[in-house]
Structure formats: C-alpha cells, structure tokens
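Hi team,

Filling in the usual template for the complex we talked about on Friday. All components are listed, including any nucleic acid strands or ligand strings, so the model treats them as one assembly.

SUBMITTER: L.P.
PURPOSE: interface mapping
COMPONENTS: two
RESIDUES: 1491
SEQUENCES:
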Amino acid sequence: MKKIYLISTFIIATLVSCDVLDVDPQHSIPADGAVNNRTDAIRALNGCYDSFQAAGYYGRNYNAAGDLSSDILSWSGTTAGYNQMDNNSILPDNVIVEGIWSSIYRALNRINSLKERLPEVEGFEDNEKQEIQGELHFLRALAHYDLARMFGGVPVRTSSATADEDDLNKPRNEVSEVFQSVFDDLEVARQNISSEIIRGRASLAAVLALEARANLHYYSITHEDKYLDAALNAASSVIDDFGLELEQDFAYLFSGNENRESIFEIEYNEQDRNRLAEYFFPTDISGRYEFAPDSVLLADFPEDDLRFSASIGFLDDEPYVLKYNDIETGTDNVYVFRLAEMYLIYAEASLLKGDDPVEIRQYLNPIVERAGLDEVTSDDYEELREEIAQQRRLEFAFEGHRWFDLVRTGQALEVLEGVTDNYQTLFPIPLNEILANDAINDEDQNPGY
Amino acid sequence: MSGILTIIATEKNIIVSAFIISNWGDLIFMQISCLSCYEYSDWMCKRVRKISGIVFCSNQTNRIINTNQNSTRMKKIITSFALLVMCFWAVNAQTIEVTGIVTSHMEDDMPLPGVTVQIKNTDQGTITDMDGRYNIEVDGADTLVFSYVGMLTETIPVENRRNIDVGLMMDVASLGEVVVVGYGTESSRLISGSLGVVGEGEIRDVPMRTLDGVLQGRSAGVQITQNSGTPGAATSVRIRGNSSISAGNEPLYVVDGIPVTTGNYGQVGFSGQGINALSDINPNDIESITVLKDASAAAIYGARATNGVILITTKRGREQKTQLNFNATYGVQDLENRLEMLNAQQWHELKGTSPDDPDNVTDTDWLDHVLRTAPIANYELSANGGSENTQFFISGSYYTQEGIVLGTSYERLNSRVNIDHKVNENFDMGASFGVSYSLNNRVEGDQSLNAPLANAIANPPIYPVYDEDGNYAEQAPFANPVAIGNEAINEAHSYRTIGNIFGDYRILPNLTIGTKWGFDYLSLREHSYDPITTRQGARSGGIGLEAQNNVLNIVSNNTIRYTNTFADVHNAELLAGYSFEIFQRRNQFIRGVDFPNEQLQYLAEAGTITDAYARAVNRGMNSYFGQLKYNFDYRYILTASARFDGSSKFSEENRYGFFPAVSTAWRVSEENFFQNLDAPVNELRLRASYGVTGNDGIPDFAYMALYGGGSNYLGQSGIYPLGLANPDLKWETTYQFNAGFDIGMWEDRLEISLDYYNNQTQDLLFSRPISMSSGYSSITTNIGELENKGLELSIKTVNVETDDFFWSSSFNLSRNRNKVLSLYKDQPLDNIGRGSNSVRVGEPLGIFYGYESYGVDPSTGDIVFSDERKKIGDPNPDFTGGFSNDLAWRNFELSVFLQFSYGNDIFNGTRVFIESMKGNDNQTTAVLDRWTEPGDETNMPRATGRDPNNNNRISSRFIEDGSYLRVKNLTLSYNLDGNMLETLRMRNARVFVTAQNLLTFTNYSGMDPEVNYAGDDNLVLGTDFFTYPQVRTVSFGINVGL
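RESULT (copied from the run log):
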C-alpha cells in the first residue's frame, strides 16, 4: 500500500507541475492587444501627457536647466549636475542632462506608439479621434522643439521604436529639419485639435502658442520675415480668439487655482505629484534648497515690481522661489504657455519687423502695468528691445525661459559671466547617447564638448 | 613506555601481537606475527595500515611504527584489536553449526580473515580464518553480526540456515567526513568537483546575524562583502567572481534541499542597503554549509547554478539521551574609525565668515550626537535527542542588536523543529520547520538626504542641534540627523516560515524513492512614519508609509535513487529527479501625508493618501535532472549530471535549457605503486571537471512587448509601452572548467587543496543600453561574453598536537581575474553609479573610468586633469582570503581569524562632497591643507564656491587603495573540566570572550574599507558614499550543555 501512496505522490507532483510555466504578467498587457478601443486610446493618451510630468522634463529639470544656466537661479544644494549648469561648464556625462534627453524621447515614443495604433481604433464619438490625433501632433512638436532649443539638431522621431537596428540608431538631424518637423506637426495639430481649453490638456490655443514661440525662434536662425509674420499671426490669434485674458493679480497665477491666462500647463495632483517646491524651499521650512534665486536677478528685480513678492520669498535673509509652493503635496502645476508670453512674443516680433513703436508698446505695456510698473513710453527700438527682454526675464523668472531667450537673442555671451565661448550655448549630447547610438559618434557631439 | 604482548591461539593459528605504547597513550610500535602463516599477518598489517593510514609499515617484520601523535586513532586501533583478540576466545558450540565465507566487496571478493562473527546480544563469537571461513554454533533463531575494522558491520538473522556467505562493504566513513552535496551526500575523499565546506565549529561563537557573515573569508573563491554595517542589511556574495552584467550574480541558496527566497523585498527605499531575506535564518541552527563552486558540483541546480550554490544543512536530532544546550552572548559595538570633520572655527575660516556672536559660538560635533556605543546580545536554547525511531532537534533563540547609528536596531526571534522518524525499516520520513520574526528599525541610508549618518557628517558645525526652546533646530543645510534618528520610524517586520516535509521509501534494498515538499513564506511588513518633528515630515504634515510584501515559494523535489556495487569494485549511484517551483509575490504600498497629530502614525488618520498600489508576480520553474556517481574501487571517480530547466521567464520556444556536467578524480594515493613509495602522503587526489550552468536572473516577461499602467494624468489612469520585446531571449550560459588536487600529508596534519578554474560566460543576459532617442534606455538581450579565471588555494595544518597543547591553522587565498570579452558592438557601458563604474571589453567588470588627476597646479590652485576620460581604478581585488589559527592549551582555547582583500580600489564618493570646499557640506580636516596662494604645493585644490574647473568631478583624485587586513574574529574561551562539571551537573560548559572587527589595517581614508553604497548592484562596485561602516563588537558569552 505504501508503495502505491508514494507512487501516487509522484504522479500528483507531475500533474501539479503541468501549468507551472503557464503564467501571465499581472500588471501589463501584451502590446498587441493594448490599444483596442476608445477607452484604451484615451488611457494611452494620458500615458503621453504623463511623460511630460517627468522630473527630467516639465516636472523639474528642463525648466531648472533653463534658469540655472542663466541669471535666474543659482545652485545652492548638493547635486553636482546642477552645479555644472550653474557654471555653464557642463560635462557630457552630466546625469541631469541625460535625464532631460531621455525623458523627452520617452514622451516622443509614447506619442508615436499611440499615433500608429490610433487609425485602427474604433468607437469614438464625434471628432474625438481627430482631436486626439491633433493632441499627439502638438505634443510631438513640443517635444521636438524643446530638444532643438536645448541641444540643436537632434534625431527626429516620427515613428515608435522597434528593435530594428536602423530604427534604434537614428542620426542627428539638422536644426532646420527639426524645426520643419515641428511646423509640420503643428499644421496637422491645428487642423484637428479641439479649440476648447481644458486645464492640463492641449488645445488649439496651445498649438498656436507653440507656433508663435517656434516661429519667433526660427526667425532668429533664418532671419526670414515669414517666420515673424507667422509668430505675429499665431500670437494675436491666441490673444484674441479664445477668450483668454491676463490675470490682473499676478500672484493668483501661482495660487494653484484655475485662471483665465493659462494656455497649457502640465497638471499635477496629490497622487501624481512633483518635487518642485521641495527643491526650491529652504531647509528650515523642510525644503532641500537645491536652487536659490540668482543674486544678479535679486539685484535687478525692482522691489516695487508686484511680481517680486509673488516670485521670491525670504526666510530670514534667505531668498527662495515662491512660484512653486505646495511643498506638502507637490501639486504645483507647471506652465508651458500662458497668455503673457503671447503679448511679449507679439511685441518682440513686431519690433523685429520694425513696426510702429505704438504697436509694440500696446503689447508690452499690459505686462508692465500688471506688474505695477510705470508704462513704457519709449520710441527707441533698442530701449524697447531691452525692455521686452527684461520683462520676459522678470515675468517668466523660474519658469524656464531665460536661458533660451538669451541664446535665441544672441545675448548669452554678453550677459552671462560663465559663458565665454559660443559652444556653451548648446548643451552637450549625453555621453551615453553617443556610446549607445551607432549613428551618433564622438565627432557628432556639439563642438567644444 | 609500556608494552602489551598478546598470544592468541586457535586450532590453526597462533598469533602474536605486540604493542608498545608511549607515556601519552600513543601507540609507537606494533608487531603482528602469525606463527603458522606469514601471509596472514602480512595481510592484517596491510589492513591496519589501510584503515589507519599509518605510514611506516614494513612487510618484512610486520611492524607498524607510528610517528603520528594522533592518539585517539591509535586507541581505536588497539581497541579493535582487543575486541578481535577477545573473539578468539569466544568459540562456543551451540545447537546448529553455521559456516560461510566472509569476503570483501572492495578487493575482488578477497576473503577476509579476522572478521569478528558474533552472536547478537551475546559475547559469543568467532573469527574468520585465513580463507575468510568461519564456523559457529548457534541457535537457529540467532542473529549474526559480522564486523571488521574499516568495513560496514552486517547483521544477518540465521533463520536456520547452515551456510551464510557475507560480503562486507567498505565503511565509507574512512573516506573522510561526509559532506552535503546537491541532492545527496558524499564522502569528502570521493569528491571530484570543487566545493567549500564550513562546519559547525566555524559557525559557533561568532555573534553574527546572518550566515553569509559567517562564511566570510572561510572558503576560497567565495568573496563576501558586507557593504555596510547597517543592521539587517544585505551582503553581496560572489562565488568565483561576477559572471553576469545584468542578470543576478548572487548564488542560489538551498536550505535542507529546498531553494529559498533571498534578496530584498523592502518597498520603502533604502538604496543599496536593503533587507536581507537570509537574515531570517539563525546561523546557530546550521550544521554545515557547503559551497558548490564548479559546474560538476552545481550543474545539478541547472539554470540557477552559474553563480554557485550554497547548501545549508540545519542540525538534526540524534539517537541519544536528550541533550540541552544553552548559549548566551552579550556585547557592545562601536565604530573603529571616525571621520575628522572641521570645527566651527575652521569652517568659518574656510568660508571666510565669522560667527554671529563671537562670545557664544555654536560648535556642534554632529557625529557625536548620532554615533553611540550599542549593545548586542544573543540567547539560545536547543535540545537534541531521540529514540531509535524518532529523533528531534528543537531550538529557540533571541537576537538583539542596537545600531551604532541613532535610530537603528535589529531584533529576531527564531525557532526550529527538525524531526526524523523511521516508520519501518524501509520508510523514513521527517520534517524541518524554521519560524522567525524579526524587527528591523532602520533609518534612511547613504543616498538619502534624510540619513542620520550622512547628515551628521555633512552638516556644518556652526548649526545647533536644538533651538533655544529645546526643539530640534532645522537651520542646517541637511535635515537634523538627531531628529531623524530619534523621531522617524522605519520598521520592517519580517515573518518567515521555511519548512519542508519529506519521505524516503526503499522499494528494493538498492532502490529508494524520495519526495520532499518545501515552502518558504516571507511576509514583510514595513511601517514608516516621519512626524512633523523631522524636516521631511514637517514638509507634508507628517508622512506615513505602509507596505506589505508576501512572497511564497513552493518547491517539490521527487527523486529515485539506485545504489549498487558491481563486481565488488564498481560502485555506482544513479539519481533521477523531477522538481517544480511555484513563486508568487503580492505586494501593497500606501503613502499618506498630513497627520493631525504626531502621535497618530497610521494611515487611517492621514489627511491625504498620496500613493496606493498593489502588485502581483507569478513565476514557475519546471526541472528534470539526473546524476550518475561512479567509482572504481574508490580510486577512479566519475560523476556526471544533467538538468533540464524550464522557466516562465522565457518564451515557449526558448523555455527549456539543458545543463550537463561531468567530473572525474583519481585518488593516486590508492594506487599500489604509490603506496610503495613510502612517501609521507596519505591522500593525493587529482580532480577535473567541465560543465554548463545557466542564469535566469532577469525580470519576468522581458521576452514580451508589453503595455503597463500607472502613467496617470488628470486623475485618470494611463497606459504606456514598457519596453522593447526580445522574443529570442534565452538562458545565459557559463561553460566552467575546473582542475585541482588535494593532498594530505602526515596523516592529514597538512592538507593542501589547489584549484584552477576557467569560466566562460556566453549569451550574457545583458540589459543593453540602446540609443535613448528611441524612448527606451535598454533592451534585454543575449549579447556579450565574459570570463572568470582564477586560482584557489587552501592549506590546513595541525602545527602542534600534544595532550595539553593543540594548534591548527587554516589559510585560504583566492585570485579571480574577471574580463569582459565582448559586448554589443563592443560599446562600453559608462558612468554607472556615483564612482563612474564602467564596463569595457578587455577590462574587468566595473572598473572606474574618469579623468586622471595630475595634482594641483601650484599657480592656479586648480587640479590638472587628463583631457580624456580613462581607466582610473579597479574595484576588483587581486587577492582575497582568510587565515585562522586555533590554539588550545589545557582548558583554554584561542582562535584568531584574519580576513583580507588586496589590490582593490575604492572610489571615495563621500570625499566628493566633504572635500569639495563648496556647497553646504562640512569638510574633513584634510581641506586645511588646501591651496591658498600661488606657489603652494599641495594635493588639495583651492576653495572656490563656483569651481569652474570642476575640481570635484569624478577623477582619480577620489580613488584610493582599498586593501585591508582585518582581525575579523578573535575568541578566547575556557572549558570547565571534569570535577567542576560534575559538581554543576553539566555535560560541558564554556565561557568565552569574542571580538569582531577588532582591528583593521588599511590605508583607506574613509570609515571602512569594506564598503559599497549600492551593494545590490552588479556594476556599482567599490564605491563609498556616506556609507554606514561596519562596527567593532566585543562580546562575552557562555555555552552550557546539560
């Protein structure tokens, strides 16, 4: 009998084991069946927006890089990568820069993956599918533009990655090609995207805002007037056509409440939080004080400017950034575009075209006046140019614009102590990209690095 | 001197034997002569020699002269002879006469003269004659016992038979101690593979929390790095080097035949200093540890054998009157080496500042507030005993340790019950259960900005610990470490049950089937709370975390084993088996903030839940294996094994891997020609093995293209592509060659083993970095090759052995050369970890790669760096090893264990901050030598807030020699002797003082040279980053046996 029992045990053991290897992932779904219906597509779109929340992108480092590299922020913490940005002496192995690069490309891949699957998906209501298509094109344009203004020519990604070698290893495109891709995507986005502004989502106003910004930028490279015209048209359309208006209380923009000035912002909430305030706040009030307002900015910021107290706080004598202030739950949203920028883009483009100073001042002064400053009356183009630059600097302090403005306007060498050579105006292609990408070699690195 | 002369007369023979025994009881001369027959005495003489290994034996005179002081063995021989002699007298006729021949199975059925044939439970018996014949008068119901020195005793019921022929088997015990090997045991002298054994003797006394700590330095080829002194934290164990870049490098741990869950299942992040699942096993429950190092030993574990296998055998009961053992140790721990930081005045000088109030300067020694002398204790009671049919081992223990860093401690309760039961002659069954609970109070580690030790090092002295009101002050740049240590709660509760039940049934005398079912259940509950009195907690009105991880592993092993000896010299054992494993993990995590009161620390009171998730992993493994062990006359040994493993980590096409191995050994010392050499060598064995092992240590489902969730936005759920699929993914394969020899001289007073190995790993499971512009950072591939070649030497000696003085030594030395042979297009991996470890073809894994520092330019005070980054150091040691000495004098015992590592570099990442002379970190006193004006010749660059030259970039400036020699353990003990024990009614009693890490000799400037902040990483090697150093422990203890 015992033999029978034991032999049965053997048999049972064998039977039990048959499906031991037959296990499925519990938290993921095979990619083939992942985006089948409308709900899936909406979730995958959320996944695309989610990638813009990354700490390497709008969640912190992209904007911080723009301010640290300029005269807006200085490094006051412990992370060496930020120190290099502050000094404008970035090494190619800088992990912060690598994080920015990889975060933006992660976003691009998510966008392309959904874009390729979307045509097959059915069950949408009304124009929903086109609108999603439009959002994807906008997000892709934004990501490519953000890469181009930081690194120069970069690989343009318009399809999702496969394990195919040629697909993995894309060379750097020319800056012009990147911009062309941005403009192409914006064109498609403009035709498809919804014009309804929903907080945290891209809409037609965001498309036009990026058009304005990118065209003004591309003018500085090409000096072709058509880009100025495009910037002017786009900016004025945003200002006029969407019911947006400047929020009269500047501080209200950073209160966390919904406002009438916001064109597109990256949304955070308690479950989906960032660590911006933590990085900006002094240690006494539980921050890590990685960044502090630059002493040059403090010196140049008029005390009676209403934006000063909305942007900078003091703990004893220690200045700190106030624009991101929810240290408790990290829900501060990050502006990608707000209306004030359209005014200043319009003013700048108008100035570059040589328009009547009245026209220029008409777009500059609402910003100046909201700040509680005396309106600008000058007719002098050089004075106006300086005033626009100064207003951009103060208006968007800690919002990640300054470095790109200085580079775009060719002022970086002149203004920034740490920039002594033109090569410093582009960030280095991350070392690990050069190591892993067969199509980008040492000689393709931005010169100087 | 004393002599014994015995004359034995039987009808046919007269035997004369003579012994001369020294004053110490040692046999120094023995003569056997047989008056009627020369051959008989010659044969006996040889036999004695064979069994005892006595080296001088002259056939002409039939004399055995002992030069060996091994008195116990000699006494045994005399006893055997005496028994033999006794039996000559005991010929006594009874009812029936049984006759027969007793032969040896070992030597061509050679008749065995002189075998004692005894009637069971009587003193009646006889002895076989020249031709192995015997005759004896017995009762038909009697049982005969055939015994002979060096042979296994046979017990045979007469059952009224008139003729009983018996073949005696060699007693394998004379082939050395029995050691545990994969799916069985083996005599140490019949082993053809490479393995290391650590016995109970080396385990006791050491108040170590984990068994990997016990193993350190004890076995050649096993490199164990403690990584940090964090109580309860993981160590890294490497057997013969790192064999993989992206897959696991830790060995497989098998407890009582069942693979157990190891690794870190903590969810509250403590990078590199995770919880060690092995620490749930009480080292004092362990009988022995066998480390399977080469393919022949390990390949039976197939797909998980590449990194070696550590077999742990727990203590089992014995048939004896129950013995109780009580052990207790109590000790204190402190830090051997502290960093010298700047005081307030030096800090002000460095920064060019001055104190606010010169009369009342704050000068805080932060380290003083955070470091402490901490107690450690262990109490343990065990019982061991049983009857003929049932034996048990029961133990219970309590271990408690406070950390030397404020806020850290570790406590553990263990119990174990091991039972063996013989149901009947053919059926054995048993069970083993270990149950434990541990509580690990942790603090955030190295990498965190909320780590007490790191913050205590980095906070400048000019800030106070407390404000005027006595509350924690938070003016310092880093969160107040005293507040964190005292107020923050980080508990990890581990509930663990490891058990198995087994049955073995002998279907035929030579054929046994066995089944063993094991389970390993680990439940880890983490509770963390940062109250508003800490900086981190204040940020969010208190932060609470609750995490739960349940890990279940079920293993079924089913084997059939056939053992037989053919034609007396062909000894064979055949094993076939089938095994499967089911692994399930379920974990949950919740985080909440905004607590109404710091007394309320559970999430029910949290104002906002900021994170909550639950996850699941299922995994399966299916295996078929077989093994043949064969030896010819215990001289020529062959072992072959093979295993098929199927794992759910691979696609159906690549699901099964095949892992064969073969090994052979030749016991030269068993050859006649060798025995005639009269060399002082009692054992000489040559070994060689070759085999294939696998590694599947990668995340699940890497072969599939997947979409994952969690990428939420605007409060809605989101999904995204997880990574690139590689459907071709398969096992990583290592081809292992091993050759070595073992030599024992002067009766094993000198034992030397030397092994050479060459392990070639192919199809590396390699998380290959891909162009980040694809949107992914890596893809799991089978690309690349690397090799580990090495030499392992171990030497054991008995230096002095007299009646009241004994001294033995054991030394081991390992040299491993790791080299990356190929990578994907030979692209290097770079910039890994804080010390910029790198993987490059032609170099060992994890070399340091950065700028070479040529020193400080006296004119500028900046460091002159090489233009290009280059290899600036190697964290892999040239040699590692251990050296232990055990001395006994009368009742005293002293053991000293030294452990060393030579030739490894450390990247001192702490200095990147505390010698940066910028930022907010306090600095070491080394910066007092900084460059201050042109012309200064110094190694320390200028102090500059901006550091435009990036003086503290990753460079050879921070590379240091990490070689060390450490007095790992020193124990002095006293054994109470006879009279005292009797008075106390104790079986034995021992008191001891023991010290761990008593002294460390090193040039390393950090706190501890045995360091790695990311101990759980394959490629981040030899890097210090504010890491919790190991402690020095001095303990007092007693062992009492009743």
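MY TAKE: The CA atoms of residues 123 and 251 of chain A lie 43 Å apart. Chain A has a mean pLDDT of 92.

Thanks, L.
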